[in-house]
Amino acid sequence: MASPEIDTLTQALSRLPGLGPRSARRAVLHLVKRRETALDPLLRALEAVAEKLATCSICGNVDTTDPCGICSDTRRDSRSICVVEEVADLWALDRSRLFPGRFHVLGGRLSALDGVRPEDLTIDALLRRIEAGGIDEIVLAMNATLEGQTTSHYIAERIEAFPVRVTQLAHGLPVGGELDYLDEGTLAQALRARRPVA
Amino acid sequence: MASPEIDTLTQALSRLPGLGPRSARRAVLHLVKRRETALDPLLRALEAVAEKLATCSICGNVDTTDPCGICSDTRRDSRSICVVEEVADLWALDRSRLFPGRFHVLGGRLSALDGVRPEDLTIDALLRRIEAGGIDEIVLAMNATLEGQTTSHYIAERIEAFPVRVTQLAHGLPVGGELDYLDEGTLAQALRARRPVA
Prior knowledge:
The structure is a homodimer. Helices cover 42% and strands 13% of the residues of chain A. By secondary structure, chain A is of the alpha/beta class.
């Protein structure tokens, strides 16, 4: 029954992560019933982002400026770079406000299964940033998966020759983690990396 | 850290039903990473709907044409009108494809608590549709709530004088409903409206 325009909008929304056909319909209904307060603002917001969308030529972040807000923020520590797999990881880390430096987005992880090789990631660009100088520390913040860690090791080896400190995120118990419920891999990591009680 | 444009888009999306701040962020990330396949299509779909959005002057449905697709569909039975509280109810009933007639959206329900009086709903417009003739049956499809049923009774009384059949949706056990889990109100309705086994 719905008009083709409304159908198309429902379909476009239902492809967003977290929205299925049912919730997309509810969202469309919400939008069409609230033109001034919901539909128009969303439309203007999308237009603004679509108009300016850019991939940062330095770090690979997606933003509305190039260089991105992080790379052009002079209050941030330009001497340390946190290397992540995806833009999503960059956003997650940045949201935590725990890392004061810059980032580098690899655009994926090495994967024999998916045929992702080093040249498919932005590893060379990372090496060029290090070569250009002014970098003290590279923080490898790959996912704690087999592929993430393989990528981490590979990059660590490639960086070895440069006079920078290479670190990686600690692995162990997550905050609030109960031993009883944790997988053996995490327990093994936590045990292996145990530290003296302060 | 995110640019103001991206922040604004995240906020606009997070106001949709079913999306919180977290899933809105994920949706934005999805959009900005897939410009051609996600962001642009959604933008065009929103534009198309925003451009044509209209409230049907006959039934109150929201659509991209006036009269709406249902009121202008000559294959539908124009002799029966299903009266609903909200556009959402119309869409839900229409999706089921079980009702072949037209609709009438009241725009709410009578509510002493919220100060909604008969003149705040489109009851007069419904009476004019009936007065205009050519209507055999009015199906009252209000919600099975106290306010919905009050509205239903009120409208039934107002229609009494017209030569139309007035019906309402059956109340009873929902499909798959287990007696053990149903509320007393539903059980009482089901018992009161019990029917001879065919």
